[in-house]
# Entry
Amino acid sequence: MLEQLIKIVDELVLSEEQRESLFTEIKAIKKKLEVAEFKYNRTLHDKAAITNVLNASIQEIEKQKKNIENAKNVIDRNLAELDMQKKLTEEKNVELNEAMSILKEAQEQLIQSEKMASLGQLTAGVAHEINNPINFVSANIKPLKEDLAEIMQCIHLYDQVIAENKLQTYFEKVEQYKDETGILFSIDEVKSLLKGIEEGAARTSEIVKGLRNFSRLDQNVVKKANLNEGIESTLALLHSAYKDRVEIVKELGELPEVDCLPGQLNQVFMNIISNAVQAIPGEGKIFIKSWATGQTVKISITDTGQGMSDETKKKIFDPFFTTKEVGKGTGLGLSISYGIIQKHNGKIEVTSQKGKGTTFILTLPVQQIKNDNLNTL
# Structure
């Protein structure tokens, strides 16, 4: 292109000076064109280099991105495995705690059963030893009263004969002695003492019967029993705990005999009635009712005590939960009672209102069709 311009300039009619000036401008233009071409080529080269660098960087970034994604996937998998291990560990801890709780409860039940067995042997021996002398006392009260009545009749006849035959002067010393000793008061006192002995003997017999019924040596043998007898024997044993302040109102219906472990159910009655007595701070009443309905027997025990809040009511069957002061309760009585009723295929329900007392309702089947748990109590 430059050569064409020179050729065109040569063909023009110009002075030497004009020609020289035109050539100078053409050379300047050529130089500018060369610089521009150089810059253009350099730009193309730099652009290619930058493109190569950018492409390499993009590839490296893509590679790092894939590496990061792979690492993230590995981390996610590890986190998922850790989360799964954590859940498994938590589940195992829950199972372990439940097993520990069951084991501890079973241990306490075993200890309680051993205590009850020992108590049964002890009270059976005590009841046997007390029963013989108290039977002797009870058996002799009636003939003693009859003998006293005959003696009194004899004295009365003496007085009648003396009065009819006007023999008072001959019996002045006797009458004087009678006045000095207050023989009539002594006779009344003897009658009162005999009545007290009779009542004491009857009460002792009732306690002995209660001891024998409550802590039976056959408590681990399933047998038919009348639950009213168990309630009566339990009340006999607890008499000293409530006699001065709590009135027991009984409405015991006619019940069929129930397949059960009598000693274990007596333990349930003891726990619930004891709690009812302790729930009454001053004077109050405990209502005990029993009735049969279909193939079940129901027993309700209601006290006029302090009652429970809903929060407390939810926890009363939990092992080791107690509202009593330290050292005054283990928190196992109702938990063990719940287990005993459950193993009898029965049901224990509680309703309570703060300040308005508590009611426990026990429901038990009359017959145990097949109950391996009952045989292992």
Summary: The chain is about 70% helix and 10% strand. Residues 219-377 form a domain with the Heat Shock Protein 90 fold (CATH 3.30.565.10).
